[in-house]
C-alpha cells in the first residue's frame, strides 16, 4: 500500500498573516513541516496543496512537490480534498 500525505497551506492566516512562509532558523515554516512529514518511513509521497504561487515557488525551491488548488477554501480539509 502507498501512503500519500497532503499538507494544506495558505497565506491568509487571521492571527499571523503569511506565517507559513516565515523563517524558523532561516527555513520557511512550510519547509519544516514538509521535511518532518518526509521523515516518516510509512509515507511514500508528500505534497503541499496550495492556491498561492508564493507558497508553490517556496516549496519547489526546496525540492518539494505542489498540488495547485483553488485559492479560497473553508478549511484545510477542503483544500486537501480538492487536491
Automatic annotation (TrEMBL):
Its recorded name reads 3-deoxy-manno-octulosonate cytidylyltransferase
Q: List, alphabetically, the SUPFAM superfamilies matched.
A: Nucleotide-diphospho-sugar transferases
Q: Does the keyword rRNA-binding apply?
A: no
Indicate yes or no for the key word Lyase.
Answer: no
Identify a single GO molecular function assigned to this protein.
3-deoxy-manno-octulosonate cytidylyltransferase activity
Cellular-component GO terms for this entry = cytosol
Give the keywords, sorted.
Nucleotidyltransferase, Transferase
